[in-house]
Structure formats: structure tokens, C-alpha cells
Amino acid sequence: MDELRLKLREIADTYMTSVAAHDLGHLDRVWTSVEEIAAGEGAADMRVLLGATYLHDIVNLPKDSPDRAKASAFAADMAAPILAGLNYT
């Protein structure tokens, strides 16, 4: 899992901004929160959560962009081939 995390982190870093709200540190903080929540929930698929954590913000649109509400869908579309390349089904 550590190797996958490092690979996803490296990929995500190429898309992140230097703004603290959307930088690599943000993703690391989200991962820490995900781990804590998953520990309390029981049988979580950590591999799925790992992919979602590190790729959820790979599309970062300005707050005033008319497409801002679509950023999550754009990120999902962009994440699909990345995840396929990492043997996610």
C-alpha cells in the first residue's frame, strides 16, 4: 500500500497548485483524515480510498470559473485512465 500511495502522490503532485488549499499537503491531510475515519468504520477498501484521496483534486478550477461545479466530474474523468494504468478495475 505504501508503494501505491507514493505513486499516486507523485502523479497527483503534477496536477496540484502552490495554493495551500490545493497543494500536495492538502492531499496528505485528507489521507490522514481518511485513515482515521476508515479505522472507525471497519472494513473499508483502503486501496479505493487511497485512489480517491490522491486524485480528487487533480482538476482545480478557479472559484469564479463558470465550470467550478463540474470540477469533480472533470477530475473523475481524468482519474479514470490514471487508475486503469495502476490496475484499478
Give the mean pLDDT.
91
Q: What sequence of helices (H) and strands (E) makes up the elements?
A: HHHH
C-alpha termini separation: 16 Å
Largest sheet: none
Which range does the strand content fall in? under 5%
Annotation field: number of helices: 4
- Weakly predicted, low-confidence segments: none
The helix content is: 55-70%
Oligomer: single chain
Characterize the overall form: globular
Structural class by sheet pairing and helices: mainly alpha
Radius of gyration: 13 Å
Strand runs, count: 0
Explain this structure to me?
- This protein has 89 residues and is mainly α.
- Helices cover 62% and strands 0% of the residues.
- It has four helices and no strands.
- The protein has helices at residues 2-13, 24-41, 46-55, 71-85.
- The longest helix has 18 residues, at 24-41.
- The model has no long low-confidence stretch (mean pLDDT 91).
